[in-house]
Amino acid sequence: MSSDPLVVFTPSGKRGHFPVGTPILTAARQLGVDLDSVCGGRGICSKCQITPSYGEFPKHGVTVRDGALSDWNAVEQRYKDKRGLIDGRRLGCQATVQGDVVIDVPPESQVHRQVVRKRAEARKITMNPSTRLFYVEVEEPDMHKPTGDMERLIAALAEQWQLTGVQTDLHILHQLQPVLRKGGWKVTVAVHLGDASHPPKIMHIWPGYYDGTVYGLAVDLGSTTIAAHLCDLHSGEVVASSGIMNPQIRFGEDLMSRVSYSMMNKGGDQEMTRAVREGMNALFTQIAAEAGIDKALIVDAVFVCNPVMHHLFLGIDPFELGQAPFALATSDALSLRAWELDLNIHPAARVYILPCIAGHVGADAAAVALSEAPDKSEDLVLVVDVGTNAEILLGNKDKVLACSSPTGPAFEGAQISSGQRAAPGAIERVEIDPVTKEPRFRVIGSEIWSDQEGFAEAIATTGITGICGSGIIEVVAEMRMAGILDASGLIGSAEQTGSPRCIQDGRTNAYLLWDGSADGGPTITVTNPDVRAIQMAKAALYSGARLLMDKLEVDKVDRVVLAGAFGAHISAKHAMVLGMIPDCPLDKVTSAGNAAGTGARIALLNTDARTEIEATVRAIEKIETAVERRFQEHFVNASAIPNSAEPFPELAKVLTLPKVSFNTGGGDDEGSGRRRRRRA
Predict the structure, then answer these.
(1) Using an 8 Å Cβ cutoff, are 455 and 448 in contact?
(2) What is the pLDDT of residues 364-388, one digit of tens each?
(3) Other beta carbons less than 10 A from residue 386's beta carbon
(4) Which ranges of the chain have pLDDT less than 50?
(5) Fewest beta carbons less than 10 Å away: which of 275, 305, 389, 471?
(6) SS (H, E, C) 68-82
(7) Do residues 135 and 44 lie in contact, with contact meaning Cβ atoms separated by under 8 Å?
(8) What is the pLDDT of residues 9-25, one digit of tens each?
């Protein structure tokens, strides 16, 4: 039995006996305790903060008395005076063992700390970034030891941090010698820790101790928008987020339009590649400016995107993705460098692109799978990433299926007469009184409804400019609930509905949501072509989900997760009324926000997650909707609102939809749409 004092670390529970005078940081390292340090125990970085506990600890079989650690010293006092130190905290590199002691390692002092995502049901992200900072003291040159400065720096990393096989690029050699001398042979280096295919590599170097951090980007490259999150690679904090419209939109709003552009125009694919890279660089400049950082400090990036965006971003002609069998140039994950993609961040920054699942189910769907983990679910979960091209996952811990549905841009406000992207002034929430047929709404930028006092003042700066995706979803569903719209998708006339807001629009009718013409503003209506666009989009979405349910031989799901930046703003009730998603208890329909972006962030902050998602993707069964006969059958049924063939018993528990029909050819509510199609 050792007579040396016992040191117990919490929350890990690791313990061991150490001689009097052993620094707590040394004890932690020897036991494999997750205690951070950049300076290697020199009392410079303060990352190794710990909290000693005193008193009786029956669980650990130890009593901790005063004097269990060495006295507070001048190094700790200097740090507290300069930066502040929470009362009771000590620096693990300065406090030494004097007796039995229980040491708590707070979360912020853990190398692999967990970052909690904001949603209540979300998983934690364990910090294990690709790049870390290391402070080293380098041996000065000697006439009798003709070793290069770089070789001595690499030797110092091996001796002081056990980092072996470290390599570097030419740009580091350009600055190495002046930096070493300016720092008095003490420097901080950012080292990319490498992976199975790449050795560790020096990314950046600073003279002396660098009391800062390095950054990474989690990027969701979508057909319509590009969103990026700038993350601190030490704390995991998102320091800035921003997005722009994908500049490729000018070549076509949907994916197949862009594939067609590539086919019809020589060099069209290269033109679109340049456009998306230029747009991305503009976004990176913008996000770095918002955060007030140098873009050269962005040393890692993770990208998720659908297959067409994947190929165009990489400079690969998407021709093969436009025809069966929709072959990808590569479906594996890729590890590249920023300069290979013309990205204006750190030139040697690593770029990791998640694997694609199939020809129409891309790395964005893989990121959703990483974020929402259907493969770990006990119950049957349907995850729908709503966008221009919807990716759908269905499964549980036993099996996961995946497919995509070409919903088009209607859900994002495109192809809608008064539609616009989500921006201040856009109508985002709508309610229609079922008796008076009068609407009330909210616009982005204000929490006040249009029939409340102060609305005009609240929107004075933005005005009312149009209707965004969530707004068009809600207004069409509200029109169905109020009896303004029938199940086939026809808008009634003023006489049929009893509302003067139903106005003639050519051979059909439209619903007047807002008339701002008196003040020089827009007149916002919902037309029958608008409704048709939503019907086509929601039918494609539902059909993909129903097809996966057929494959698993189930008629219902236990819960539904709506993902995507747009999915975060969809009301579960309105989505169910439209028949966008299968019938399900409304309290079992939740939003995951931008799950693809979150998956990218997980892969950025935890390199182990990259290995995990690569294995997960290999296990997912891919279903190609384009060759499945039942997809068209489900699509026809799902064109009705909510559906002409599928019952929605859970929805019926919440509300009763009016049985109205505005088809002047006669027929009942549910059948009129089918008869009209046969006549056509």
Answers:
(1) yes
(2) 899 999 999 999 999 999 999 887 7
(3) 29
(4) 116-122, 666-680
(5) 275
(6) CECCCCHHHHHHHHH
(7) yes
(8) 988 889 999 999 999 99
